[in-house]
Amino acid sequence: MMRQASKMILGQGLPSLPTRTRAVVVGAGKPRMYHERVVDHYSNPRNVGSFDKKDPNVGTGLVGAPACGDVMKLQIRVDDESGKIVDACFKTFGCGSAIASSSVVTEWVKGKQMEEVLSIKNTEIAKHLSLPPVKLHCSMLAEDAIKAAVKDYETKRAKSNSIEEAAPVKKAADA
Amino acid sequence: MTSKLLAALLRRSLLKPTTSSCYSTTFIHRRPLSTAAAIVEPLEEDANGITMKGVKISGRPLYLDVQATSPVDPRVLDAMLPYYVSRYGNPHSRTHLYGWESENAVESGRAQVAALINASPKEIIFTSGATESNNISIKGVMHFYKDKKRHVITTQTEHKCVLDSCRHLQQEGFDVTYLPVKPDGLIDLEKLRESIRPDTGLISVMMVNNEIGVIQPMEEIGKICKEFNVPLHTDAAQALGKIPIDVDKMNISLMSLSGHKIYGPKGIGALYVRRRPRIRVEPQMNGGGQERGLRSGTVPTPLVVGFGAACELAMREMEYDDKRIKALQERLLDGIREKIDGVVVNGSTERRYAGNLNLSFAYVEGESLLMGLKEVAVSSGSACTSASLEPSYVLRALGVEEDMAHTSIRYGIGRFTTEEEIDRAAELTVKQVEKLREMSPLYEMVKEGIDIKKVAHFGYGVVAGRIQLDQSGRSSSGHLSSRESNLCLIRLC
C-alpha cells in the first residue's frame, strides 16, 4: 500500500516525456517557433515568379507596405470562359510566415473558381501553418492579396468589355 | 521508512533506460532531478544533425553574435574552477582560512579590472552585471542628489536598461532629455552643450553601441562635462577590453562593465565609482554593507576571479585581437559586397568597433533572411524579431528608413572567430539574399524602374492621400472597411 502511494506521488511528480511529433507546440508568450510547414514553404517555395501584368487574363494583387515589413504580390491567370484560375504565382517581401502564407495561397487557388477563392479565410491559412498570434497579420495580408488579384482581374475584364462595346458603336456611327 | 521507499522508487524510475522503438535513433537530454515548472522543449540530436524549434541543421551553427554574449576563454575557466570546488569560502568570512583566501582572490580580481581602465581598485565595486550597474548609476545618483538636481541627459541609442531607468525616473518626477544622434550614430556635441541645465545631475552616453558598434567621442564629451561640472556615466559593457579606456583622460565618473562580453563568466559585472572628485550613489541593494555599502550581498568569488582573469587577458591581447578582427571584418564585408549590391553599413564606418558589423540588405526582409541563415548565429534589428511590428529603436534613431531597418543583420566577430567561419558566413549570406531577392516584389519593381519610395502603401482599398500603384487605374474606394482599418492600426500605417 505504501509502495502504491509512493508510486502515485511519484507518478504525478514525474515530467511527462515529450511527444515525438515534429509539430511544435505554440505556447503563449514563447519566442517564435516555426511550424515545419512554414520552414518547408520557405526553403522550397512553390510558384515564385511573375506573369505579364498587361496580359488580360492575369489579375495582379499587390498589398502591404514596406514600412510595415510586409509586401505581397499575388498574380492569378484566369481562363476567360470558365472563370477558373489556371495558374498562380507570387512574390513576397516579408518574414518567413508571410512567404509561407502567400506560397500556401498560390497552391490553394489553383484550379478553383474565382468566386470560390474569395471565401478563403485568413484563419484557415493560419491554422494550416500554425501561425502564432503575432504572425496573424501575414495570413490576413495573404487573404487581402487574393481579393486584390481577383478584383484587379474583374476590373480589367470590365474595362476591356466596355472598350469592345464602344468599338462596334463607333463602327456603326462611321458607317 | 517511507522516505527510503520513496527514494528507492524515484531512483529506479528515473534511471530506467529510455530505449524504445521510436527513440532508438535519438538521444533526448533528460533532466531527472528537474524541478522546472515549464518543460523546455529538448534539443534532439542524432547522426543527421540537430533539430530544435522545427529547424533542422547539420551541426551547431557558426557563432557570429559576440555582442550578445561571448564564450568563456578556457584560461578564464581554469582560473575560476579552484574557487568552486576547493577554495570555496565566502570572502566576507573573517575568521578562517577559507574566507581569507577568498578575500585575497576577490581583491586581486578587483585590481585586474581596475588596471584595465586605469583606475584604483578602491573605485571598483562588483555587481551582477552591466544592467545592475546601470541601474545603480542612474537611479542611485539621481536619488542621492534629488534635492538639487532634477535633470538627466542621455541618448536615444542607449541600452534598454538605461532608457528604462530614465523612464522610471521620469515617472518619479525627474526631467530626462533623450539626445538624438546623427545618421552615423554619433551624438552632436553642440546639442549636448545646449541641453545642459544648471540642475543637470547626470549625463549618460554609452561608449560603444551594442547594435551598431559606433564609438562615441568620450574624450570630447568628458571635456564638456568637466566644463559644466556634471558627472558623466558611461555604459562600457561592449567597450571593455576592446578599445583602450582611461577614466582620467575621459573624465568619467561612473562606468558600467560586464563580464560576459569579454570572454568572462556570465552573472558578473562591475561599476567604477570615482573617488576624486567623489560621486555619491544611493545603494539599490540593501543588506550587510558589502562593497563599500553600495552593493550588499556576498561577492561571488569564482565569478570575480574569472572577470579579473578575463580583464588581464584582454589587456595583454587587445592589440592583437583588434588587428585580427579588423582583418576579418574586411574579409566579411568584401566577401559579401563583391557578390551582391545594395548592402549598406549602418553607423559610422570610421568611428566603429571592428567586431560589430551591422548590415542592411535592400529589398530583403530581416526575419526571412535569419530563417535562411540558420547555420549562422547572428541577430537582426528587424521588427519581426521583436514582439511588436516596429524595427529596432537604434536604427530608427539613426534615421534609417523603415524598409531598410527591417533588413538589418548584425554580425559579431570575436577572439575565437576563424577565417573559415567568416568565409562560410559570407557565402551563406550571399546565397540567401539572392534567393530572397528573387522572391521580392520590391526588387522586381526596382529593376523595372519604379521608384518604391513614391509608393507608401499598396492595397485595393486606399487610404486618402496615398498613391495607388496600379496600371489599370482603378478608382479608389473612399472609405476603409473596419477590418482594413484594423489592419492598418496593427501595421501602424
UniProtKB/TrEMBL annotation, chain A:
GO terms for biological process: iron-sulfur cluster assembly. Its cofactor is [2Fe-2S] cluster. It holds the Pfam family NifU_N. It comes from the Eukaryota. Keywords: 2Fe-2S, Iron, Iron-sulfur, Metal-binding, Mitochondrion, Transit peptide. GO terms for molecular function: 2 iron, 2 sulfur cluster binding; iron ion binding. The keyword Oxidoreductase does not apply. Residues 33-158 form the NIF system FeS cluster assembly NifU N-terminal domain. InterPro entries: ISCU (IPR011339), NIF_FeS_clus_asmbl_NifU_N (IPR002871). It is found in: Mitochondrion matrix. CDD domains: IscU_like. GO terms for cellular component: mitochondrial matrix. Belongs to the NifU family. Scaffold protein for the de novo synthesis of iron-sulfur (Fe-S) clusters within mitochondria, which is required for maturation of both mitochondrial and cytoplasmic [2Fe-2S] and [4Fe-4S] proteins. This is Iron-sulfur cluster assembly protein.
From TrEMBL, chain B:
Gene3D superfamilies: Aspartate Aminotransferase, domain 1, Type I PLP-dependent aspartate aminotransferase-like (Major domain). Its cofactor is pyridoxal 5'-phosphate. It comes from the Eukaryota. GO terms for biological process: [2Fe-2S] cluster assembly. The keyword Iron applies. Its EC number is 2.8.1.7. Keywords: Iron, Iron-sulfur, Metal-binding, Pyridoxal phosphate, Transferase. Residues 63-424 form the Aminotransferase class V domain. InterPro entries: Aminotrans_V_dom, Cys_deSase_IscS, PyrdxlP-dep_Trfase, PyrdxlP-dep_Trfase_major, PyrdxlP-dep_Trfase_small. The keyword Signal does not apply. GO terms for molecular function: cysteine desulfurase activity; iron-sulfur cluster binding; metal ion binding; pyridoxal phosphate binding. One of its GO terms (cellular component) is cytosol. Belongs to the class-V pyridoxal-phosphate-dependent aminotransferase family. NifS/IscS subfamily. This is cysteine desulfurase. It comes from Fraxinus pennsylvanica. The lineage of its organism: Eukaryota, Viridiplantae, Streptophyta, Embryophyta, Tracheophyta.
